[in-house]
Amino acid sequence: MKKVIIFSFFLIAGLAGSQFLPGIIGGLYTAFSKIISILTLIALSFIMIHVGYEFEIEKDKIKSYGVDYLVAMTAAAFPWIFVALYFVFIMLPSAFWQDWNAWKEVMLASRFAAPTSAGVLFSMLAAAGLASTWMYRKTRVLAIFDDLDTVLLMIPLKMMIVGFAWQLGFAVLVMVTFLWLAWRFMHRLPFPVKWNSVLAYSAVIVLVTEVIYFLTKSIDPDVPIHIEVLLPAFVLGVMIKYPEAGNVYDSEIEKRVSTIVSASFMILVGLNMPLIFGEASGGLSGAVSTVTGSQPAISPGEIAFHVIAVTLLSNLGKMFPAFVYRKEAHWRERMAIAIGMWPRGEVGAGVIIISLGYGIGGPIVTVAVLILALNLLLTGVFIWIVKYLLAGVPVTDRIR
């Protein structure tokens, strides 16, 4: 667990930096934050290529992946639904309970609670020495499907805000194409797998997605095409062919570089967090042209209460996987999967940033950012609980 503690420290350091650096470097922070965002995406791509590289789909058991997708979908949907209901019925005045505009804003903003942070989760589980467990292999499938479901559902949510746009349909087509490529060319492309090659692939993926984003934003600033790097990076890893035994992929330098990238990713995820208080978080000076943005500020005590309550609700929503896979796993492993899905990070922060871009703000977004921050701080605790649960699994149940 030493590595988990170190990674947790990096997360906290990055989170602290995200709150203090804007005031320290002033006007330079806009350029700095963009650089940090690019580096985060490159590190995430690097991690997800490796995850895809180790990913294997048994094509003769394809129906089981349908079950996994349904489980992942519920693990993403329940936190979203719970948080949306809380935001509307607890944090908004009753006058807005039947206001469709309020519901649209809240449904988009509360989606931050849905996605598990695949990059953070996989890095932490590997750091805890759990990469060879059944729990890790199953969680890897669920977390990827979880994030995929979040990305897909963001498209109709955006349509509710801005209306139908061809860009959103194009994004769906791109994602379907990626999934087909993963299926068709699974572990067939003889690409180099040394760390410098994987880093180059990651940089190219980020470059292409960012160029597409800026070009389409210049055409229509309201609905640019933003392809999340998580999917193309994972698909590339899935398509890369297994190397021969003893390949450099398993060498000490490869493992060392992967650790360095994962540690850097922890810092970068923390640095990418929006400001907890202030204009960027939709606080007192947030947008007032929306229902959420027009809500008055609330006291620190009320904010703390909402943060704790919604954190509990959002993590409760992730517990559904604990009730399935009864024939495959011990209850401790199933519980470990559910708790392993708790970490949130870069994808949830991206949802909040998208929400801010549509003018959604006020206390709801402040609470959302604080929940994300608290969840990041507790990531190491979640992984410790997972390891404790797995340590208690009977030996006969670990053998598969």
Structure description:
With 400 residues, the protein is mainly α. It has a single domain, classed as Na+/H+ antiporter like fold. 68% of the residues lie in helices and 0% in strands. It has 16 helices and no strands. The model is unreliable at 280-288 (pLDDT under 50).
- What would you call the structural class? mainly alpha
Radius of gyration: 21 Å
Please tally the helical runs, counting DSSP H or I stretches of 4 or more residues. 16
**Which oligomerization state do the chains in this entry correspond to?**
single chain
Estimate the global geometry from the Cα principal axes. Answer: globular
Roughly how much helix do the residues carry, as a percent range?
A: 55-70%
The largest β sheet comes out as: none
The name of the CATH architecture is Up-down Bundle
The CATH class designation is Mainly Alpha
Strand content: under 5%
Unreliable parts:
280-288
